[in-house]
Design brief:
Blueprint: E1 15-21, E2 25-31, E3 47-62, E4 65-78, E5 84-85, E6 92-93, E7 98-99, H1 100-112, H2 115-122, H3 126-143, E8 151-159, E9 162-169, E10 174-179, H4 184-193, E11 202-204, H5 209-213, H6 216-221, H7 231-245, H8 255-264, E12 268-271, E13 296-301
Parallel strand pairs: 2-4, 8-11
Antiparallel strand pairs: 1-2, 3-4, 4-5, 6-7, 8-9, 9-10, 10-13, 12-13
Bound molecules: zinc ion.
Residues 38, 40-41, 43, 78, 80-81, 83 line the site of zinc ion (ZN).
Protein name: Transposase
Domain Transposase IS204/IS1001/IS1096/IS1165 DDE: 152-214
Organism: Marinobacter excellens LAMA 842
Amino acid sequence: MTELPDNILHLPQYQVLGCKSTDDEMHFQVDVPDPIACEECGVQGEFVRFGKRDVPYRDLPIHGKRVTLWVVRRRYTCRACKTTFRPQLPEMVDGFRMTLRLHEYVEKESFNHPYTFVAAQTGLDEKTVRDIFNARAEFLGRWHRFETPRILGIDELYLNKRYRCILTNIEERTLLDLLATRRQDVVTNYLMKLKDRQKVEIVSMDMWNPYRAVGNWREETMTYFETDMPVTNAYTESINRLAKDKNREGRGYSFEVMRARMLYTTKHKKKAPTAKVSPFYKKTIGYGLPDFAEELNYGVDLSTI
Ligand SMILES: [Zn+2]
């Protein structure tokens, strides 16, 4: 097989067959080489091509124009094992019908701009941008596992036109999470699901009368002392600054975007664990993530903000 030349798309594995462009759209018809071996049995060069159609995939904008790649997708039947298959496309995220590089671009841009802006720029619909953002934010949430504090601060913060609930680690001066509302059931539910919640010895919530009346979760889940530590107020200012800093463009961000930006695009406070851990100790971290829990992550470092 001859090697395909590089092309204006910088997708060396694709061959550009044609290009049509309008004021704000560019369309390319592109072809991929035949597969080398059967994806089922591995036998090489025993294919019969049949059926083809152009399938649209979105790509990065070029010169401000939205780009669609019409990929000539073929089906093949293998003479050796009689399987019919449609080969995997290189450089594409099939589930989203877009190039890998566009997917990465949207992941990044959706943290920095409103969904509508990213959608207009790329030609994707807003829901797709949101889906990509959500998947990314969820991944980051699993990746950055914040340690459960000994002294948990629960506070409120006026953000994006509503009162939100903020959770802090008072001893470490870090931000752990933001909840969309300060509604009691939402906060209670969050606390019930808190990992290692038995680690919490003290809960400080100095401004919230409704909470002082609630008993359910604390009796069941943690040793609870009500304190009047005035500590949390000191953070509110830092957290407000952080929120402003991450929302400079002003409007258009959803709460989820602001939350993810505040939690995952800010410096975290990390420390090496104090106790030596036996290499034979089986960790139960799970989540299917690589386990290099060398450092403990205490959350967003507020002392530097
Ligand atoms: Zn085969």
